[in-house]
Specification:
oxidoreductase, NAD(P)-bd_dom_sf, two-stranded parallel sheet, NAD(P)-dependent dehydrogenase (Short-subunit alcohol dehydrogenase family), about 350 residues, Sc_DH/Rdtase_CS, alpha/beta, binds nicotinamide-adenine-dinucleotide, 11 helices, Rossmann fold, seven-stranded parallel beta sheet
Length: about 350
């Protein structure tokens, strides 16, 4: 039986006699059971630290690894859960704007593009977290590869600053910034939630895309990837406002893909299923909406990592996506076919 490490999948841990016993004992302490881990069986054990949002410190994972390896943390071997494999030079010479770059899927996408040779205009409302990203990537990428722009994608003046920061050329745009709604059905949705969710998730995508397209048309080339959601293709994945915003992203994507199809532009969308990013929920979540959604959310076949979504997004953004235009790529482990 192979050595268990923090990089082994949760499924491998559960199926291992000692590893399974150690995890079940840990869960029992908090009154939980192994069934709760079924949707995340494919993720590396390490991911539990991020998934728990502060409840489970790194030391718990380290102790689990030690407990099945005679008190040592072994060298990580190849194999186990999926690992990101960087395609060297795939974004050489390209400038890509990535929104939501300070956290989760946007951060993983920005990081991958930079490590594959690209220059990223990294946009987020959080200046502090953007600075963390820039300093982390400074050690692995040439100077100037990350251009942080702290800004709000709903404000035209910030859109103008983002485009100005890109400079002479914009080869790609990944519209990833987004927020959750409160799971409310339409009769409970407040103007505040509606305006915020539609503003960031849909109007922000509209404004930045509108600003970038003229430069791409002039160059006769460009790749745009918009992040929709499972909630963009069905009615039972989220609340009313989020569902409307993500369906809107798909409409915007299809229209733009059609309009510029003969001009060298490609416009596609990725629809993630569950992703372990810790994207926050508003303070008050609707009991009515959550109750209606629960059976469908419980049926999610698997939860992905941000890096797995970045793999789908960078595929479409890069020249590997040649000939793909107007596609809505579900990146959800098969949730959408249920
Ligand atoms: N996590 C999931 O399960 C999931 C599933 C489906 C779709 N999505 C979508 O994926 C995208 C990324 O989500 P994530 O899970 O990485 O979330 P996240 O919260 O980790 O990252 C979103 C980022 O967007 C930024 N942001 C929010 N409002 C902004 C604004 N007005 N201007 C600029 N930046 C702003 C936030 O500061 C944050 O850094 C979102 O569009 C989300 O709707 C996520």
């Amino acid at each position: 039986m192979s050595t268990l490490t923090a990089h082994s999948s949760i499924g491998d841990w559960l199926d291992h006699p000692e590893g399974g016993a150690a995890i079940r004992a840990m869960l029992a302490q908090s009154g939980g059971g192994a069934d709760s881990l079924t949707p995340v069986r494919a993720l590396p054990l390490q991911q539990l630290v991020a998934l728990s949002q502060g409840q489970m410190p790194q030391s718990v994972v380290d102790d689990l690894v030690r407990s099945v390896n005679g008190g040592e943390i072994p060298e990580d071997a190849e194999g186990g859960a999926w690992r990101e494999r960087v395609t060297g030079g795939r974004f050489d010479g390209k400038t890509v704007i990535v929104t939501g770059a300070a956290s989760g899927i946007g951060r993983a996408t920005a990081s991958r593009i930079v490590r594959e040779g690209g220059r990223v205009v990294a946009v987020d409302i959080s200046a502090e977290k953007l600075a963390e990203l820039a300093s982390e990537l400074a050690s692995v990428a040439p100077e100037g590869s990350v251009v942080p722009v702290a800004g709000d994608v709903t404000k035209q003046s910030d859109i103008d600053r983002i485009v100005a920061a890109a400079g002479e050329r914009i080869d790609g745009l990944a519209n990833i910034a987004g927020v959750n709604d409160d799971s409310s059905p339409i009769h409970e949705t407040s103007d505040e939630i509606w305006d915020r969710v539609i503003g960031i998730n849909l109007t922000g995508v509209f404004k930045l895309t509108r600003a970038v397209v003229p430069m791409m048309r002039a160059a006769g080339a460009g790749s745009i990837v918009n992040i929709s959601s499972e909630a963009g293709i069905r009615g039972n994945a989220s609340g009313n406002a989020y569902t409307a915003s993500k369906h809107g992203v798909i409409g915007l994507t299809k229209s733009a893909a059609f309009m510029y199809a003969t001009e060298g532009l490609r416009v596609n969308a990725v629809a993630p299923g569950g992703v372990a990013t810790g994207i926050p929920f508003p303070a008050n979540v609707s009991a009515f909406g959550s109750g209606r959604l629960k059976p469908f959310q419980d049926a999610i076949p698997s939860v992905a990592t941000a890096e797995q979504l970045a793999a789908s997004i960078t595929f479409l953004l890069s020249d590997d996506g040649v000939n793909i235009n107007g596609a809505i790529l579900t990146s959800d482990g098969g949730w959408s076919v249920q």
